[in-house]
Amino acid sequence: MAFAAREGRAVWAAAMFFTRLPLPSLPVLRPEDESRATGWWPLIGVGVGALVAAVWWLAARVLPGGVAVGLALAAGMLFTGAMHEDGFADVCDGFGGGRTRERVLEIMRDSRVGAYGAVGVVMLLGLKWQAMAALPAGLLPAVVIAAHALSRGAALGITATLPYARSDGRPAQRMTGVSGARLAAGAVVALAPLLLLPLGTRVACLAVTVAAWAGCALWFRRRLGGYTGDCLGATQQVAEIAILLAALATL
User: Fold this and answer.
1) Could you give the number of structural domains in the chain?
2) Where are the transmembrane segments (predicted)?
């Protein structure tokens, strides 16, 4: 019973942190709730992916496919507050405009979006839109759920392989306190939706996810010596589009 209550709090905290759904707050938010919540990030991806797929399915009943995809993408950003897209934009701005580690971190902290970030997000959303619209309709929901779950698993993997790059802020406490057991559980949840896809597509999606994780980790280590919350959002977005493209290429 204690285990169920503890993990229930962690899942609820994860939904509070990683979505913008109107959920009641926990009566008392404990520090351990935050670190435990991070391990459930891929599960939140399953939920967000299912909501996105549901919006697409409903819209596709009465609207052209491309319009339905656009509404589904908009719904996904509404569900999450576009926090991952925002992180991707900040990384584009910081790594594009900064020459030193300190300058990159400074730019990434700026709430304004620059040219690199704007162009990056436009290209990212355009690729997602085209890839989803071109997927076989019968498998689109499964691909979307897998992409959201597995890409968050890639971002979770960054927290296991790199230190936090900033010396201040609560994200350092929340993201770096994830135990090995929780990372393993998160990996299982992230991988589970792949079972909905054909074998060749599973292999391709897993391969590009590992490549996205490894590439981002090496890049962040080289430029920053670690990661920030924006880096996690960028990793999730890179992995998500890579998974969509891998599925499109193999279905």
Assistant:
1) 1
2) 40-59, 65-83, 138-165, 177-195, 201-220
Q: Are 124 and 241 in contact (CB under 8 A)?
A: yes
Residue 50 maps to a domain: yes
- The answer to whether residue 170 sits within a structural domain is no
Structural domain contains residue 10: no
The answer to whether residues 172 and 228 touch, using CB atoms and an 8 Å cutoff, is no
- Could you tell me the residue range of the domain that residue 85 belongs to? 40-163+178-250
Q: Is 82 left (phi over 0), alpha (psi -120 to 50) or beta?
A: left
Q: Could you read off the pLDDT tens digit of each residue along the chain, which spans 251 residues?
A: 666 666 777 777 778 888 888 877 765 566 666 767 778 889 999 999 999 999 999 999 999 999 999 999 999 999 999 999 999 999 999 999 888 999 999 999 888 888 999 999 999 999 999 999 999 999 999 999 999 999 999 999 999 899 998 876 555 545 555 677 778 888 999 999 999 999 999 999 999 999 999 999 999 999 999 999 999 999 999 999 999 999 999 99
For residue 201, give every residue at least 6 positions away whose Cβ sits within 8 Å of its Cβ, in sequence order, or none.
Answer: 143, 246, 247, 250, 251
pTM higher than the cut 0.85:
yes
Establish if 136 belongs to a structural domain.
yes
